[in-house]
Inverse folding.
């Protein structure tokens, strides 16, 4: 794992190929488990390591499956100005207006979250242990992505404003440096979401609004920091790499007034609430009989195949790089 990460970051400055970064995605799924009611906790808590580790499977799939990329973002500014009234919120209406190919070109994360919610609901109804766990882990990933500001902006990595690397700076460098030391993850319990479509679109619209601040504040801060103050050789995952300096990262987080922490907290609450909503919509099935189940050999082969494709990709993502 460290070798793979090193290959991806040594050309740094923090060109992140991961949405939220592997670290943050894992933490979001991990913390979400503790927001669940006891009736769900008895299944999710014993499998927390799986939910944590496999939170990043959708990102690994971006190196193997061409259609995976658009599920992680939406360049919503392509559709006009906030709140983008010309973009239908319902999938069939959006396809009719813009075509499926066009929607895929600019990203489909709010629609894909709803697809995954329906899959998880069906898995609960069937009491299918493997599908519940795999779908829960991956649903958590897409929900978390919808909370990232630059996942709702066509200038997703500062490529249009000479700010290349800002994507990974916001979603990887900031939480990796500050989450364990400064972020507060004491959050309330999961809540039932009566209108999941509206809920996830609201989160995307919040992300779109916040994206301008992310880009503007980084640029303003860069004008105050000399290059040798903005970047530094520091340890990351046990390896010395050139990346945004701790001082610049802390200053950026302060200038954003804790935005990364707020979005990460909300992502955790959202993931837990979507899991809870799927369970309720499935009729709140008794999960006791599933608590002791294990993944099959076929599941293990599936996980290994994905890992091999990811490791053999040489860091080359299919489709849009981030």
């Amino acid at each position: 794992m460290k070798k793979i990460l090193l290959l991806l970051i040594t050309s740094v400055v923090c060109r992140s190929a991961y949405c939220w970064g592997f670290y943050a995605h894992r933490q979001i799924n991990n913390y979400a488990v503790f927001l669940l009611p006891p009736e769900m906790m008895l299944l999710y808590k014993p499998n927390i390591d799986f939910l944590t580790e496999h939170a990043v499977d959708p990102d690994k799939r971006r190196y193997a499956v061409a259609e995976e990329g658009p599920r992680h973002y939406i360049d919503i500014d392509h559709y006009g100005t906030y709140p983008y009234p010309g973009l239908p919120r319902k999938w069939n209406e959006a396809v009719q207006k813009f075509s499926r190919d066009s929607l895929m070109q600019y990203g489909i994360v709010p629609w894909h979250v709803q697809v995954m919610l329906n899959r998880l609901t069906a898995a609960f109804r069937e009491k299918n242990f493997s599908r519940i766990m795999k779908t829960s882990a991956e649903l958590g990933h897409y929900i978390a992505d919808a909370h990232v500001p630059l996942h709702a902006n066509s200038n997703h990595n500062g490529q249009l404003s000479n700010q290349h690397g800002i994507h990974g700076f916001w979603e990887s460098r900031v939480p990796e440096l500050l989450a364990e030391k400064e972020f507060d993850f004491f959050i309330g319990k999961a809540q039932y979401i009566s209108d999941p479509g509206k809920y996830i679109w609201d989160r995307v619209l919040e992300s779109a609004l916040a994206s301008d601040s992310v880009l503007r504040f980084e640029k303003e801060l860069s004008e105050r920091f000399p290059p040798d103050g903005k970047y530094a050789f520091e340890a990351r995952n046990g390896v010395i790499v050139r990346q945004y300096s701790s001082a610049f990262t802390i200053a950026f987080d302060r200038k954003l007034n804790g935005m990364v922490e707020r979005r990460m907290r909300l992502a955790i609450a959202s993931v837990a609430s979507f899991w809870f909503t799927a369970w309720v919509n499935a009729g709140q099935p008794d999960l006791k009989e599933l608590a002791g189940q294990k993944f099959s050999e076929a599941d293990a082969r599936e996980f290994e195949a994905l890992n091999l494709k990811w490791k053999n990709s040489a860091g080359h993502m299919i489709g849009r790089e981030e």
In short: The longest strand covers residues 231-236. Residues 143 and 249 are 25 Å apart (CA to CA).
